[in-house]
Amino acid sequence: MKIPFNKPFLTGNELKYIQEAVLSGKISGDGNFTKKCHQFFEDKYGFKKVLLTTSCTDALEMAAILIDTKPGDEIIIPSYTFVSTANAFVLRGANLVFADSSAIHPNMDPDTIEALITKQTKAIVVVHYAGVACDMDKIKRLADKYSLYVIEDAAQAIDSYYRERPLGSLGHLAAFSFHETKNIISGEGGMLVINDEKFIERAEIIREKGTNRSKFFRGEIDKYNWVDIGSSFLPSDLIAAFLYAQLENIQVIQERRKKSWASYYQGLTELAGTGRVKLPVIPDYATNNAHMFYLVTNTAAEMKGLLEYLKREDILAVFHYLSLHKSPFYLKTGGHYDLPHADHFTDCLVRLPLYFDLTESDQRKVIDTIYKFYT
Ligand SMILES: *Cc1c(COP(=O)(O)O)cnc(C)c1O
User: Fold this and answer.
1) 82 C-beta closer than 6 A to ligand 1
2) What is the DSSP letter of 72?
3) Taking the model in full, what pTM does it have?
């Protein structure tokens, strides 16, 4: 039996809630289940305002519009990230400025950011890699000093914290993902979190094709009209129904994932002690939401060898981001960066299978196979 890298987990109520939504007669956006999901997030994490979106990518695109990203603006992002962190701002004509990862963690190194700030800088977009917080106090201090926006790409960061504050509550805006590879899923799906009140009204408009339809539905105005740019960023209530079933089980899902994560950590500690691999580092200001278990090999050749060896044993482990500063698209723009730490994680980071239904024996096999490769 093959051990996959990921396997979507169903809590049991997904189909029941979808059926309820269908039978309710309203399955477009902002129906009952969307409202329940919004309430859940605002209650549990104290987010000022949340809006479900069709993806994290869409939530990031909304964030780029909300801060009025314009041609010539510079946006600081890590190079070691998913393309959506970049595309959202490039679509609005911004120039990307890449920060390197820190030496011990894929997250952007906060001590390198100040040197990247110019008069054109508009925002710092942080990515909480593997759900582990960036050093937000340092980043927010810089943002305050230079009057910059902070946007959190919190795609992987559900139910994770920075010094007791939930990730997603720290930037002016934050974006989450419910893609099937994340901890809490709805197939495709996402959410925009709005922590700065001044964005709330416009966010509703942008999400509803540039109209004030949300106000109209609340009875605050008697006609709705085209008032701004926008697109269709809101999901069907069927997606929210699926998501709500997941949210009701967030505790169970998180506990199980953390247990699997801890087993990997414990099982691989001896190997890490020999210096052949490095295990994830969780800084003391951050929590671990067990989104991902990865190890870092010493060389690119070792990573390739390990992935092939695991594959021959029917275990699907995978590498991760190809840093954006070396992407064909970015190189076409003529940019050039030297980011050794991002390069290192591109070359050497290996993600191991981690999902709700991962059995102890399968996990044992993954660990044993890694030891076999190294001996
Ligand atoms: C998954 C992910 C995204 C994209 O999420 P979608 O919901 O698929 O759009 C963006 N950024 C990061 C860091 C991610 O891990």
Assistant:
1) yes
2) T
3) 0.97
